[in-house]
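Question (not urgent): is this output format expected?
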Amino acid sequence: MEVDYQGIGRRIRAARQTQGISQEKLADLVDLSKPHMSHIETGTTKVSLPTLLRIANSLGCTLDTLAVDSLENAAPLYQNGLHQELEDCTAEELAIMEEMIRALKTSLRRRRKQAE
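Got this back:
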């Protein structure tokens, strides 16, 4: 499996934006130029492991969170993420989300079958 640098870049950008950190600020935190950080976020440059570690530490996330698109066994990571999102939901919210997930799952599988 190849490393999905664009996926890593998208996740870095999303984590940065969620935390309200500018691209320039993150670049400063990890000792990179703003253009280099931009290239990492767009996936036009390959990010080194030491740089990826500095980015993950600065964003307070894990490497697997940033590289999930490149992992062969990513299901547990997604399941953990879903579990964390659901922890503070009310019973009513959980019931609605369960309905939505079932409908979405059915639709995705139907489309996959039609595409085959």
